[in-house]
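Quick one:
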Amino acid sequence: MEAAAPTTVVLPTTGWNDACKQVAAQLRSGDELLVVCDDPLESVAERVDECVDVRLIVAGEPEGCSGKANAIAAGMEAAETERIVWTDDDFYHPPGWLERLRADYDRQGPTAEVPVFVGRDPLAAVLEPTHAISGTLAVFFANIPWAGSLVFERSDLEDEAAFLTDLRRTISDDGLLMEHVEFATVARTRRVGIGGSIRETLENQVRFVQTVRYHDPTGLAAQGVLGAALTAVCVLFPLPAFLLTTTLMAAVYAAFGIRRWTFLAAYPVALAALPLLCYGLARRSFVWGGRRYRWRGKFDVAVETAGQ
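Output:
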């Protein structure tokens, strides 16, 4: 039997947490976990020193890109293996998570799992049907890579140096990766908390819309047409639209094992689809991870402190 390919897991985080421990426990001989932080946090360094095959990578402050993209680029540069896994620290990594991704790659090449976003504030909860469509259903059927859980190899990138250069001048790491590597998605979902306050949920909405704007303009146009059509149908035929949207959303939830009452919000979310899209396009900046970003073009990003 051919030996399993050594794997580097790149995990951007702001501190040592459960996700770090969960991934570290799944490493095989030859694997490595790179815990990537903006600053050389002593508390993280101490925990890393206690673990075999785990390293702290200091990415530094981002300049002209998002903190996440900067961290991924630093992790990629520090990685010592051919096979790379990207993941996030905001969901549970069950035993066997890494092994499944490894097997996925051996079977079909670059592979990503799909997220299920769960609201942590009232507005984020009401908007869950939007995320179920665009963040789960569309991601699965369009084979869009989700940076929270994916695997690929360096050789899948035509020009890794150019890719890393581009990462350091944009916002969306998985949006950029989508343009460089063809992925297959698998119907394994990871439950990810989103929001926390109404303000944070609105900021996320702006980021999501602008990611589609710069990385999938055709998809954005389709969203605009669909949003306008949904709004019109919901206004003109409220009762049939309520029954149809709720039933279809219940089917989507069932297909991906989402057991949440929020499918009942499908009708008001459909009414709000076009206004939410317009809001995301109209905003000139958004806050993410304590920084304010002005995303003026795919490779034109200004980074400020959140208070500016």
